[in-house]
Known about the structure:
This protein is α/β, with parallel strands linked by helices. Strands 1, 2, 3, 4, 5, 6, 7 and 8 form an eight-stranded mixed beta sheet that branches. The chain has helices spanning 2-15, 23-30, 36-39, 64-79, 106-110, 121-130, 147-154, 182-190, 192-201, 207-213, 222-237, 241-255, 259-273, 276-287, 295-298, 300-304, 307-310, and strands spanning 40-44, 49-54, 85-90, 95-97, 135-145, 157-168, 205-206, 218-220. The protein has a single domain (2-222, 241-304), classed as 2-enoyl-CoA Hydratase, Chain A, domain 1 (Alpha-Beta Complex).
Amino acid sequence: MKALLLAALASAAALATPQAVSAEDQHAAAAGERPASQTILLTKLTPAYWRVTFANPPLNIVGPVEVRRLVEILDEIEADPRVKVVVFDSAVPGYFMAHYDLLKPLEDSTSMAPGPTGMHPVPDFMVRLARLKAVTISSIRGRTSGIGSELVLATDMRFASREKARLSQFEVGAGFAPGGGPMARLPRLVGRGRALEILLGADGFDGALAERYGYVNRALPDAQLDGFVDSLARRIASFDQQAIIDTKHLVDVASLPPDAEMRQGWDAFITSVQRPGAQARVGALVKRGLQKPGDLEDNLNTRTADYSDARN
């Protein structure tokens, strides 16, 4: 299985757009880590249809290095007027994106320079992603928690594997507020009550329940997911670009939250994750295997609710 996974990632990397060696990649190479350009792949299937693939096994954890890579890709999408559709997916079995990197020093995140909106790169990326002229589609297979959920919420459409997708905002269960804007997006998408259930219940939603709540557009049988998303993306990519841009812009005006709400979410995350209660809960999760393959990450929503048991 490991050999097959590595072969799949190598094949995806071969199809990805060649990138100049960045400072981040040079730093990763010096530290013996995989370059960021190999953990998040950009493939230009046609001039109008691009794909972004998360390929950072075993869990698709995203931290400051990966955020910078996402920003690089976003810059490239914004700069190319031919792009009409971008699909986000994962090459890592079981995980679309686990969550933000909670083991890196907090200063690695707080010291990042603001993006073009003036916000920290995480909310900046989420805002710019949602406002792209190109249409964005998430193809969700595996666990999609925390910043993973926040990223798919920032895309225009979300399609999930009925059998294999599991979406969540686990953060409140771990003692801190989510930082990538779900408090701003979910109430507009699923309504206030269901948004609070997702955020405060901090439990996982399989594809079928996510579809019923409006968390995703549709849940499809896993065997049909890739074909459906590819067909939809190619269909949209065949349409007149200005008609796409005009229509999407007016939907954005009617539905997207103001930047101030996104900024407040990130500020709440940074403040809350430093509180003693959050530090104690995260510390207990680390002892039980946070950010390592195994039971805790596979059952993160359940394990965050076991905190009282973990202290005994």
